[in-house]
Amino acid sequence: MSHIRTATAAIAAALAATLTACSGGGTAPGSQSVASAPRITVNLTGHQAKAGSPVKVTATDGKLKQVSVSGDKGGELPGTLAADGMSWTSARNAAPGTAYSVQATAQGGGTAKASFATAAATQINKLTLAPGKNTTVGVAQPLSIVFDHPVKNRAAVEKQLKVTTSNNTQGSWGWMEDYSGKDRVDWRPKEYWKPGTKVTLEADLNGTDSGTAGGFFVRDYSTRFTIGKSQLMKVNLDTKQLTLYQDGRRVKQIPVSGGAPGGDKASWKGVAVLMSKEGTINMRSETVGLGNAYDKMVDDSMRLTWSGMYAHAAPWNAAYFGNTNHSSGCIGMSDADADHLYGLAQVGDPFEITGADAKGTVAVNNGYGNWNLSWADWQAKSALR
Do both 138 and 100 map to the same domain? Predict the structure, then answer.
């Protein structure tokens, strides 16, 4: 009869998570004895274990061959066995409010089981992703994540954000305060995307602590999108012309009127990325700090910044197209030209705006002003640099 090693008392299991397996039965003549179960300890114990750290399983005798740690909400924690076989450490943190089951197999064939549960999170952080899943966007569209609560542990969070592309596009994360005042991190390529690139983000954040006043993430997030045709709008405030380029080829030139120079009504310059196509909307000057200057229903509205700069139809300014910047900050054009451009435009298309009549450069957080930083300055905004 093989020797059966049993678990130590419940006190030891609770304090040190010492685990053993039960095996029994006789041996047939000439057969080998049944392998003994390993003795192991787990760094997390009880029913209120602290979340946010890896699970470590250590052999107190013998060596480990395989370890699995699975949560009651589905899935296993991936992990790595030490070269000496004496320990196993999960690659991801234990998530809050989760019951885990541990099973360890010794090199000799015995098994051990145990369980623990983590305390629930007192605060939960969530996020909003752009662009949306399975969308097609223009060549300047960044990946953008806005968090509900502050993120103090930026490096820990950024490590869990995995971007993969179909053509190994070089890019970097950059942190900022969103225009809304919330924490935000964007991933942009070194240069505009190549058309047809397929992009995937896996934000493996479950179990990550965002830090003071931020709380834990309790789920993972993902999105995937495709880069559409190469399309660029160049707006020259000096010549009052918008030129549309597709695949580097000039295909249309449109006379426009930008913002009146010399004050708050002037347009921004730099790269502004088309954020959304909003169609016919009510534009009111008081929403952008310009008093009661206007209150109009505006067609073919294409948002370029959070501060209220659009490209849109502006038939009331027809006399100024191509000769005078006379708007309240937007890029206005005829109904026909706006309708044509609106039909071609993709969210994520860049508007490159130049000219002496501008009031300044689009800020990095005013929409997607990421491209107005040099590549070196953008990389410096990563928490992992």
Answer: no
